[in-house]
Amino acid sequence: MNQQLPRTGRGRVVMPVRWSDVDLFGHVNNAAYLRYLDDARFTLFPSMGVDEDGALTASMLVVVKHEIDYLAPLTFTPAPFAVEVWVSRIGRSSVDFGYEIVDADDTGTAYLRARSRMVQLDKDTHLSRAFTPDERAAYETFLEDAPTLHPW
Q1: DSSP SS3 for 2
Q2: Is 125 exposed, middle or buried (0-12, 13-18, 19+ CB in 10 A)?
Q3: Does residue 55 register a pLDDT over 80?
């Protein structure tokens, strides 16, 4: 995976479609898309101030919700795609991440738009823990509007 930080508040991770990601219908399976989002988010976490040393921390960020709009089929291809990740909301102890999966060559094709909410928990008590001013400041560097998703 190739990590890039563009001029916008978005992080960008370029990755290939793996053969094992494709289902019997010839396109990337919905479960593989969740792996793509997780892989991109965890690749970018160090640049966002999260777990910079790769060590266990006093807190944990856990996913509590995903919302995904599948916009176009992504098929097995040698051309890589890019997952763009940004922060769309910062709460007291929760943070929302926005995502778009697009062609890596910026041709304009968007395959997926999504958002995830994560809550920070204390490692020992598993109770929510408010973000420190430094943690908030790191997230604010990546702050952009929430992705526009289709309503139910």
Answers
A1: strand
A2: exposed
A3: no
Conformation bin of residue 135: beta by default, left when phi > 0, alpha when psi is -120 to 50: alpha
| Cβ contact 104:83 at 8 Å | no
Residue from 4, 21, 150, 147 nearest 83 by CA? 4
Cβ neighbors of 46 (< 8 A, separation 6 or more) are 52, 54
pTM (predicted TM-score): 0.87
Q: Mean pLDDT lowest for which of 46-50, 71-75, 78-82?
A: 46-50
What is d(CA 33, CA 42) in angstroms, rounded to the nearest whole number? 14
3-state helix vs strand vs coil in the chain, percent to 5: 20, 40, 40
pLDDT of residue 45: 77
**Could you give phi then psi for residue 80, rounded to 5 degrees?**
-75, 165
pLDDT > 90? residue 138:
no
Q: In the structure encoding, which two tokens stand for residue 113, read together?
A: 């738009």
First to last CA, the chain: 33
- pLDDT for position 61: 86
